[in-house]
Description:
The chain is mostly helical. The termini are far apart. The longest helix has 29 residues, at 41-69. 77% of the residues lie in helices and 0% in strands. It is flat.
Amino acid sequence: xxxxxxxxxxxxxxxxxxxxxxxxxxxxxxxxxxxxxxxxxxxxxxxxxxxxxxxxxxxxxxxxxxxxxx
Length: 70
């Protein structure tokens, strides 16, 4: 029982820190091309659309934060 409480407290402490980690997003934008990865028009267009949607979302979040602060 005591170990369970400690693990829940550790998860609560780490959850806020993990919430603001953007490593996976940065890795998606700035990764190297893998020659073993399949490449066709559908996959390329999917990745372009994903990058555009993530960029628009991040710009929107930044806009809302700036609007709230000023």
